[in-house]
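In the previous lecture we treated proteins in isolation. Real proteins rarely work alone, and many bind small molecules. This record shows how such a complex is specified: first the sequence, then the SMILES for molybdenum atom.
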Amino acid sequence: MWKRAVCTKDCPDTCGLLVQVEDGRIIRVKGDPDHPYTQGFICKKGARFPEHVHGAARLTEPLRRTGPKGSGEFEPVTWDEALDEVAANIRRVADEFGPEAVLPYSYAGHMGLVHRHSGDAFFNKLGASRLDATICGPAATAGFKASLGSGPSTEIQEAAKSDFIIIWGNNTLVTNVHAWPHFLRARKNGAKIVVIDPYRNPTANEADRHLMLRPGTDAALALAVMHVLIDEDMLDHDFIATRTIGFDRLKERVIDWPPARAAEICGLRETEIRDLARAYGTARAPYIRSGWGPARQLAGGMAMRTISLLPALVNAFAKPGGGITRSLGGAPGKAASLLRPDLRPEGTRTVNMVRLGHALTELSDPPIKLLYNYLSNPAAVAPQSAQVMAGLAREDLFTVVQEMYMTDTARFADIILPGASFLETGDIYRCYGHNHIQIARPVIAPVGQARPILDTFQALAARLGFDEEVFSLTEEQCIERILAESADSPFMDGVDLDALRRGEPVRLNIPANPFEHGFKTASGKVEFYSQSMADQGLDPLPDGTPVRDPEGGDAYPLECITPPHPLLLNSAFNEIESIRERTGGPKVLIHPDTAKTRGIEQGMAVRVFNGRGQITALAEVTEDTRPDLLVIEGLHWPNTRPGAGSNQLTSQRITDMGNTCAFHCNKAEVEPLE
Ligand SMILES: Nc1nc2c(c(=O)[nH]1)N[C@H]1C(S)=C(S)[C@@H](COP(=O)(O)OP(=O)(O)OC[C@H]3O[C@@H](n4cnc5c(=O)[nH]c(N)nc54)[C@H](O)[C@@H]3O)O[C@H]1N2
Ligand SMILES: Nc1nc2c(c(=O)[nH]1)N[C@H]1C(S)=C(S)[C@@H](COP(=O)(O)OP(=O)(O)OC[C@H]3O[C@@H](n4cnc5c(=O)[nH]c(N)nc54)[C@H](O)[C@@H]3O)O[C@H]1N2
Ligand SMILES: [Mo]
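The predicted 3D structure, ligand included, written as tokens:
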């Protein structure tokens, strides 16, 4: 039997799936041809969901630690024993140190609005420290918002009508593959595709042109493009006069950014910059797909803000096929009656999830004494692993992990609760790569003793005597709450709720080109000059001065980025042995000149290191990277590959805006392992 489902992995595409089920087991997974955006094709990872759900690595019973922390020694216990022990420890810690000594740590292992947020009411009621969920997008969001306002951006399908597409810091063919057919449609009609990325990733490999800039120099490049657009008068003066503010001040700033200066900073040729500007300025309908790469930098908010001002100079918004895409979707929202922020004691402290290592080892008043982790694998995904691992290793820290597999985080748990997969739960999904929403219902019963996140928090709430109504709602009731509380959103206007309840993907009421209808900034205009940035003590105008890893110094002469791997999804899919093998383990891309001066040859085992840590990897000597740049794709599980784990090298310093992690802002050095 084939059943409909939705892929819940943290990816912009949120695919419609068809799942073949026999005797309660998943046999095959394929794309749902009736999904308007994902149209029946899925990525290589999604096709492996049968192994993801039924593989030997799946945790199927609750476990209690028996050996030293991190030894991986556990014994099976019953759910009742496990939940009693978790509840007793929450009570103990809250009584002895105050509830803020409890820290929930979760992210996007399951993107459903019900399960992803089903711990919120529980931790609010408890009065636990709040987790600031900043690990991914807020710098990009904040930068974009400062220039163009919040809200949806240009729908990706629009790009099919463009004649000039810039993919700016997004590995489309790896991280949001369903955008690519639309770009190809444009190309078939003569459009050119330009990729702006520090290394030749699979997307750059397919592009017409690739600007291989130094990481963290996007704002300098965008300012130089502006310089040429202004200098050679490729502007829409009418739009600038009526729909933007601060152009005169921008113009003054831009004088300081001739292509020659940017070329030096970006490590590009001046002609590459001029050509880019002229192609953009003369295109019929220039379109930008802005990824998250430029924002994972210490000045990432500024980079995103500067990039997103370009369409305003030429008024790309008015040209069918033109515009800029950051994130899409926008409804339904999270229901307040499910999150219950009103239950949270006033003044409860917030802990930035990027700074978990710091929180577990340095925070006091009170220190973190209980970590409750679900839907995230911080031992692999959080920056500066050495400090994260030192925290997880604390014998006085009680750690609860709800997981599907024995991740590096789970190995450090005191109690492991087996989690139900997304195919064993029902939920409502919105997404960030298209404007459709969908409800999915469980396609199989939970494997073994696995339980959904929602059920787990409700069982714990009962043990702690939390008796608010929210702690007894079913999955379906939660979905209905979300719909009811989103009914006011204009994006939900005209949404066919019956079709949605039947499990069909339904389009939100979001225009394909929302910028045509205005800008949701304070002024209602595009803000070349941003008063809100000035108010935050930031430069109100775009600035291209690069901000690099300050701890790097001269000791670590190379830049190092850690972008996504085609076969992994953050740290997920490491659990599938055949996928781990196909990745060949951690590799570091090294330019031939850089390899030569260090005596490194193709395939050699090397050590990549900086002041924060080190990893071992195999050298891939290639011109796909710059001489001053090391590239390490993906988050391999450290426990399956000794020396893996690129977050050994990354820093907990936060970005200029949005308090995000600068995952691609690292100085490092590389040498042969021996
Ligand atoms: N296969 C796969 N797909 C994924 C993921 C995955 O891990 N694997 N992760 C998912 C998640 S959670 C997210 S948020 C999205 C992210 O999707 P993307 O936006 O594609 O990912 P990023 O990590 O932001 O990196 C994008 C590109 O930015 C480049 N980059 C790094 N630094 C800079 C810079 O300073 N300037 C510029 N111009 N480019 C730079 C990197 O080399 C990379 O090619 O992808 C999702 N999809
Ligand atoms: N160096 C470096 N680090 C990065 C990035 C980078 O580019 N470079 N990218 C960052 C980004 S963009 C993001 S969004 C974060 C992502 O960080 P995370 O959200 O922590 O990402 P995952 O590794 O996917 O971890 C999710 C965990 O949830 C578990 N899980 C998945 N589905 C279910 C389920 O249905 N039930 C239960 N119980 N568990 C489930 C999975 O087994 C997995 O271990 O990582 C960040 N880390
Ligand atoms: Mo992300």
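Summary for your notes: Residues 10, 136 surround molybdenum atom (ligand 3) (CB under 6 Å). DSSP finds 25 helices and 27 strands in the chain.
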